[in-house]
Amino acid sequence: MKPKNKSLCPICKINKKNPSDKYCKNHLQAKEGLQKGYESWLKAYSILSWEDYLKQLLDLGDQVGNLVRDVVEYEFYFKEN
Amino acid sequence: MSTIEGPYILGISEKPQAAQRIARALDKNNKPELNRIKNVPVYLCQRDGIKIVIAPALGHLLALSSISKTWNYPVLDYEWKPNYEVNKTARTKNFIDVFKSLSKNATDIIVMTDFDREGEVIGYLILKYILGRDQAERMKFSTLTRRDIIKAYDNREKTLDSGFLNSGLIRHYVDWLYGINYSRALSSAFKRVSGRFKTISIGRVQGPTLNSVVELENEINIFLPIPYWTIESEVILESKNFKASYEKSRINNQKEAFQIVDDCRSLVGKIKDIIQEKKSRYPFPPFNLGDLQREAYIHFKFSPHKTLEIAEKLYLSALISYPRTDSQKLPMTLGHKSILTKLENQNNYKDYANEIITSKKFKPSEGKKIDAAHPAIHPTGNKPDKSFSSREIKLYDLIVKRYLSLFGKPALFSNKSIIIEINKHKFEVKGSEIIDEGWIRYYKPYYSLKEKILPEIDIENEIIFNFIDAKEHFTSPPYRYNESTLLRKMEDEKIGTKATRAGIIQTLFARGYIEGSIINATPLGLAVVSVLQEQYPVLVKSEMTRNLEEIMENVQDQKKDIDKIILSIKKELKEMLVSFHTKELEIGSSLYNNLKKSEGSEIIVLGKCIECKKGDLRIIRSKKTGKRFIACSSYFDKAIKCNATYPLPSTGSIKTTGQKCSFDGLPIIEWRKGKLKKIMCISPECPSKKKGD
């Protein structure tokens, strides 16, 4: 099995600017939006786990921006937070 | 070369069709003598005992060219040259030769080109570099009708308009300097890293325009929908159903939305108020170019470029006034009564024109925008003959009806609002009744009002709701640009001019930076902007272009010395290019990496073609329609020219699976749209599909 290259973004496999970052610049920006969005979703539904949040976003399909959807898929299927 | 016997006044017209119209109007018998010199139509007119020879140009006959022959940058010195020497496809040599030969017997020169920046520059360059003179008179007109041309001839100015001329010249110099230097700089940076030459061009206005498309694309890519709720309800008023809207149009919390529905579960409310008011709606302002381009896009889906092209043809045929205008003003001096009387002779407009003439209201409504050179776009009253295409007639109809609407009375309607309260929650039923359509009658079908008449009902009456529900929604991503909204964006950003914006959008299409009727940035466009944003943002931000536009506008208004301004622009540009040069390697490698990635991502290979057995089946996106399909790469191989193509769903994402269909051996793809996912053979005729596999 090929070892993981930590300097690459796990989603798009391009070089990360800073190796300590989780994603590349674009996916990092999408992740920030995803985190901010969670606060709005929490206000809207009062109770909502991070996992349910991701699940609902997956159900919304094309309504979610491509980069955000990449992060949602990655975080949901790899159970990372 | 045969020529015309002198002495005569030589008129410089912008195009052959305009030359013919002007000649017909100026000749005492409306029958000028046509002479074909080197296949160029030249007209000889007689007026007040004076011979006038009118020769046409073909737009610009000269173009800027670098003095230095070496291919490097910065390039700061230029000269005007015949444009057939600069652009080998330009067929302007005969036109230049004809002007040279006609110059010999000409006592005076009159510039008769369109009265705007470009018209002034075209006339000036012919005067100075082809005729070798420095003095000419100037005819200024806004339509090519006989009345306007004779008036322009009788009142011609003694000199060219220096404001227009200087601001036109400075635009040519600045656009040339920025275009050539940055295109060379980008191409050279790419070559330095890749070792191969590729033209990567970017202009002063193209950069920020492309950046707007890419920025919107980025915004859509990181868009996250946020949930919200609306309260949907329907009431019964006098046994008819009406939609009622809740006092808050949007509720951001699910609990609150459900609470409202619960509070209103009795579905019985009371009328608390009835508000009735009369409102007037005034006509839209007269058309300037931007408004006409937008309206033509809305009603006919004409691109701004197409609209301008058609409008120019209508102008050259003396059917409408000069279209490249910002003005929303229609002064009384245009002779509206005479235009309306002419329109009365056209069956389509007869009744409305007659109504206006009978009402004796000849003062049209106007907008706020002004243009020193031309009035708003309006019809001349002349009737189009049968040679005009349906597209041209459509645009003509839009212009005439907009013009007629300006003389109409304000539309009058009565708005009624019934406020219903149910357990302290307020709902509103809105209705509208037309009292007088006014100007809207003249502008149909391009605008209409919908009536919703509410029944007569008393306050404190009890009202039954059919239902009151909470509906969940999610915010939507911003809409991508189409050509019309991109044009609006350029106007808002104050980049480009009314005359150039549509052309710049076309250039972005032609260079492969953007595609589709709903505009997407191509991988190439994304790559170029991404590099420039990171390494050299000044080229994609609007500020620099906007500042330059301001400087150039000031030249026109204040008639400043353009040599000094050009010198300071050159100095600034040189400094910017020096800074570019220090970053050339970084920019080049960034461009190389991004383009490599984009070139790779542009072509998705699904597998070998089963028809020619040689080519690859690839997903292609049509540059013209934006639609995607599968085609064989051997189509471009002249020896094979394989025509194999397969359709693809127009929306959703497509991935390769690496598998082949067991029925026909064609590749199997994965198609995804929202929750839907399908693994399928690319052939629509595949037996697997018929069997429902």
Please explain how this structure is put together.
The complex is a heterodimer of chains A (81) and B (693). Chain A has a domain at 25-77. Chain A is built from 3 helices and no strands. Helix content of chain A is 54%, strand content 0%. Chain A is elongated and about 40 Å long. Chain B is α+β, with helices and mostly antiparallel strands and 693 residues long. Chain B has 5 domains: 8-61 and 83-160, Rossmann fold (3-Layer(aba) Sandwich); 169-221 and 480-594, Topoisomerase I, domain 2 (Orthogonal Bundle); 227-283 and 411-474, Distorted Sandwich (Topoisomerase I, domain 3), CATH 2.70.20.10; 289-405, Topoisomerase I, domain 4; 603-690. Chain B is 38% helix and 23% strand. Chain B contains 21 helices and 23 strands. A 6-stranded mixed β-sheet of chain B has the order 2-3-4-1-7-8, with helices on both faces. In chain B, strands 9-10-13-12-11-14 form a 6-stranded antiparallel beta barrel. In chain B, strands 17-18-19-20 form a 4-stranded antiparallel β-sheet. In chain B, a hairpin with a 4-residue loop joins strand 15 and strand 16 (520-521). In chain B, helix 6 (162-194) crosses helix 20. Chain B is globular and about 95 Å long. Chain B starts with 7 loop residues before the first strand and ends with a helix. At the A-B interface, helix 1, helix 2 and helix 3 of A face loops of B.
